[in-house]
């Protein structure tokens, strides 16, 4: 892998990269940074957690003129949390150069945003709905934008943002530099690319499977009614540092978070019905470790990068292979290992096999964790906590009492009693969740032919050679034949996109940005996609 010095970047950008702790470039960065520096339009595809943000962020920040007082670059993201996170990474990269960047997303006070816009940021990172609001209010002008980046482009299409993106891009000069990034590139992305990109270079560092290489994948077959017990045993057995649990609907997420809290886990829910304040709080707590279980709808599936996530658990099977890939990709990031568990009801087994085929990765069947395994896991965890406390030496104030008690009681019994207390056990609390319908299997055929030369993506797994090709898909060699009419946008479904578009811009009342108030709705529709060949590349 190349070091960052080899790209000929500005010294201030190099300094930022070093401060961020990046030593060498990841495969997608190595491929795209030079092309982006030449001003080439790009479609960049690489596995989850392999540094796509910096792959576009570094050349962008390098190119921006800090003297510019108008918006010169626009990054669009599908969710608010992602816009915030990408903005933070851009801020870090641009810090020493003195670049001004600003996240713009729904749910945040628009007046505050307008005030921040007066500071003349050069880079705006936003969700399409709120961006349009500002454009309509004339608080954002795009006449001087030279670079546009669509992060998670396929998801934005899937969410029905095509019209908004079109409206926004119409206002950007056509002489511009445009780049699309995602870990998954269904064929319908071709349409978007044709429309918005000029002679793009396809850069793909996806090896034979699209999911990240460092994630161990397992599934447990069980009945809907067994899921919660299985979940709590699994958490006890595995003792994750941080875990994300995906549920299918907002109601599911609420019920699950509450049930986990009742059982004594530090868990909170994240979905689009929460206020932005609540969403921000939950994310902050999860990032700083004050909660260790995040229960979420697919609003958290894309792009979120929280270090220390060791486990992803699909409490409900995701609707499509893309969603699976992105959900499990919240772990196993930046060269770290992770484990992904998926709960599957007997009627969903076919759908699981479909996901395995499309992602070209076997998901290993595992038995339901036993009570004994759960107990053992919990005991180990308690012992670790005690040893951790010993090392930190924060227990001094208890020493006097300990000596007194040891004079009267046997040390083994004392410690065992303390451990029992510390472990806590609320297993007897009955938990009842509203059942979810199973995901239906797909009937249509799909094509998983694979060919072509591929290189390893991720950290240190690549051979360094590139595999640029037309088309994307799940590692298929793809000629980019998008024969289907299967455009996946707009999806008029009940997904949780957020109808509260503060500032009430025109276009549509469809819910956006995973932030609305229609309780009980699904964050992702269960309606199968129209055509399988929008999923895989032929
Ligand atoms: N060259 C590098 N060296 C070390 N760490 C890096 C490097 N580039 C990026 N990272 C870190 O890797 C993590 C994942 O990066 P990022 O979020 O950009 O992944 P991604 O490819 O966009 O994943 P996703 O598909 O899930 O959005 C981040 O914490 C980032 O800071
Ligand atoms: Mg990303």
Description:
By secondary structure, this protein is an alpha/beta fold. It folds into 2 domains: 4-204, P-loop containing nucleotide triphosphate hydrolases (Rossmann fold); 211-437, P-loop containing nucleotide triphosphate hydrolases (Rossmann fold, 3-Layer(aba) Sandwich). Helix content is 35%, strand content 12%. Helix 5 links the parallel strand 3 (101-104) and strand 4. Helix 2 (27-37) packs parallel to helix 3 (52-63) and helix 13 crosses helix 14 (349-359). Residues 52-53, 151, 303 line the site of magnesium ion. Residues 33-203 form the Helicase ATP-binding domain. One of its GO terms (biological process) is response to cold. It is an enzyme of class 3 (hydrolase). Residues 502-520 have a biased composition (Polar residues).
The ligands bound in this entry are:
adenosine-5'-triphosphate, magnesium ion
Radius of gyration, whole Å: 24 Å
| Relative strand content | 5-15%
CATH topology of the largest domain: Rossmann fold
DSSP strand count: 14
CATH architecture of the largest domain: 3-Layer(aba) Sandwich
Number of helices: 17
EC number: 3.6.4.13
Enzyme class: hydrolase
Domain Helicase C-terminal: 214-376
Domain Helicase ATP-binding: 33-203
């Amino acid at each position: 892998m190349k070091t960052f010095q080899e790209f000929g970047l500005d010294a201030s950008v190099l300094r930022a990269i070093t401060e961020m702790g990046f030593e060498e470039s990841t495969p997608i960065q190595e491929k795209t940074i030079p092309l982006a520096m030449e001003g080439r339009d790009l479609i960049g595809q690489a596995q989850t957690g392999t540094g796509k943000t910096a792959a576009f962020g570094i050349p962008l920040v390098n190119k921006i003129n800090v003297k510019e007082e108008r918006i010169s670059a626009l990054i669009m993201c599908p969710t608010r949390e992602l816009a915030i996170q990408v903005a933070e990474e851009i801020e870090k990269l641009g810090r020493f150069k003195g670049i001004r960047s600003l996240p713009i997303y729904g749910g945040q006070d628009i007046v505050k945003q307008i005030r921040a816009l007066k500071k003349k940021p050069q880079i705006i990172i936003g969700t399409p709905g709120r961006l349009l609001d500002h454009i309509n209010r004339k608080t954002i002008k795009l006449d001087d934008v030279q670079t546009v980046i669509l992060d998670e482009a396929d998801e934005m299409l899937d969410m029905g943002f095509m019209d908004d993106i079109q409206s926004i891009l119409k206002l950007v000069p056509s002489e511009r530099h445009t780049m699309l990034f995602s870990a998954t590139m269904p064929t319908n992305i071709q349409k978007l690319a044709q429309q918005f990109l000029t002679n793009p270079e396809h850069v793909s560092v996806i090896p034979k499977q699209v999911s990240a290489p460092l994630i161990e994948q397992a599934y447990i077959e069980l009945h809907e009614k067994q899921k919660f017990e299985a979940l709590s045993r699994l958490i006890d057995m595995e003792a994750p540092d941080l875990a994300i649990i995906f549920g299918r609907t907002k109601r599911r997420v609420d019920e699950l978070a509450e049930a986990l809290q009742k059982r004594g886990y530090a868990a909170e829910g994240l979905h689009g019905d929460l206020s932005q304040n609540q969403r921000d709080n939950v994310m902050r707590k999860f990032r700083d470790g004050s909660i260790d279980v995040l229960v979420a709808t697919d609003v958290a599936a894309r792009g979120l990068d929280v270090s220390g996530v060791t486990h992803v658990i699909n409490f409900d099977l995701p609707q499509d292979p893309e969603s699976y890939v992105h959900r499990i990709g919240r772990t196993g990031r930046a060269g770290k290992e992770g484990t992904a568990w998926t709960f599957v009801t007997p009627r969903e087994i076919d759908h699981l096999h479909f996901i395995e085929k499309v992602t070209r990765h076997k998901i290993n069947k595992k038995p339901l964790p036993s009570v004994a395994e759960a107990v053992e896991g919990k005991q180990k965890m308690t012992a670790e906590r005690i040893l951790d406390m010993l090392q930190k030496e924060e227990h001094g104030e208890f020493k006097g009492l300990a000596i007194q008690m040891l004079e009267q009681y046997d040390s083994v019994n004392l410690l065992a009693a303390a451990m029992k207390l510390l472990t806590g056990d609320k297993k007897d609390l009955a938990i009842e969740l509203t059942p979810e319908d199973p995901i239906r299997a797909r009937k249509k055929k799909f094509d998983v032919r694979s060919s072509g030369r591929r290189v390893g993506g991720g950290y240190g797994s690549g051979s360094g050679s590139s595999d640029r090709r037309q088309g994307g898909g799940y590692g298929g060699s793809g000629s980019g034949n998008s024969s289907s009419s299967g455009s996946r946008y707009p999806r008029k479904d009940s997904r949780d996109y957020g109808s509260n578009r503060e500032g009430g811009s025109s276009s549509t009342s469809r819910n956006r940005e995973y932030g609305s108030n229609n309780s009980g709705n699904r964050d992702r529709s269960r309606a199968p996609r129209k055509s399988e060949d929008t999923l895989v590349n032929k």
